[in-house]
Amino acid sequence: MDHKTRVAPTRHQADDRWRKDARVVRTRAALRSALVELLARHDFPDVTVGMIVEEAGVGYATFFRHFADPTALLTDIADATITEFMTAMMPTLLSADRLSVTRVLVDFIADRTALCRALLIGGGEVVRRDAMARAIEHGTAVPVIFHPDIPLDLAVTHAVNAIFSTVAWWLGPGQGMSRDRFAEMLERLAMAPVRS
After folding, report:
1. Which residue numbers delimit the DNA-binding region (predicted)?
2. Residue 38 to residue 18: CA distance in whole angstroms
3. Nearest-angstrom CA–CA distance, 113 and 92
C-alpha cells in the first residue's frame, strides 16, 4: 500500500478515539454528574434533557452527540457505578466474612441513595433489567465462593436478582431500616442461600 494512502478508521477505532478525547471525557463526566445531582432533587421520570444540559452547562445538541436520551445516560452511569462497586468490593469479596461483604454493599448503596433509587426504581423496568444484566456479567467474574452444588451462573443470577429486589424495597418502603439491620437481612435473603 502506498504510504500516502489513508485508511479510514474502523468503527471500533473511531469509538476508541471518541472515548479518549479530553473534551468528550469532560462533557460526558459533566452530563453524568448533572444527572446524579438532579436525581437528588427529582424523580427520574421528571428529569428532562433541558434540565440535564442546564445543570451540566453544555448545549442541548451536545447532549444528543453523546446520548440518545436520559435513559441512555442513566444506563451509562449504571455501567460506571457497577464497575466502581466491583472495584470497591474486591478486597472484601476475597475474605470469608459474608456479612462484611454485605455491609460494604449496603454502605456503597447508602452513599449513593438517589442514584441507586433511580436505577432500581425510578428508571423503569428497562433500566433496571439492563443494570441487572450488567451486574450478573460482572458477578460471574468475581472470586466469590458459592456453594459447589449450585452452578455459578445460577448462583450469581439468584444473588443479583435478590440483591436488586431487596435493595429496591429498602430504598422504598423499607427506607427507615438501619444499615446494620438491612445488611443482616440482605445477607440472609440474597447471599446465604448460594454461599458455601
Report:
1. 48-67
2. 26
3. 21
DSSP secondary structure string, 7-20?
PPPPHHHHHHHHHH
| Helix, strand, coil percent values for the chain (each to nearest 5) | 70, 0, 25
49-87: buried (b, 16+ CB within 10 Å) or exposed (e) per residue? Answer: eebbbebbebeeebbeebbeebbebbbbbbeebbeebee
Instruction: Quote the CA–CA distance of 170 and 186 in Å, as a whole number.
Output: 10
DSSP tag of 174: T
Q: Provide the whole-model pTM.
A: 0.73
Could you list the beta-strand ranges (E) of the chain.
none
Does 15 score more than 60 pLDDT? no
Domains, in order of start, for the chain: 1-67 (no CATH), 69-196 (1.10.357)
Cα separations in angstroms, 175 against 136, 167, 186: 25, 9, 14
Backbone φ and ψ for 183, nearest 5 degrees, come out as -60, -40
| pLDDT digit string, tens, across residues 110-141 | 998 888 888 888 777 877 888 888 888 877 77
Residue 195, SS3 per DSSP: strand
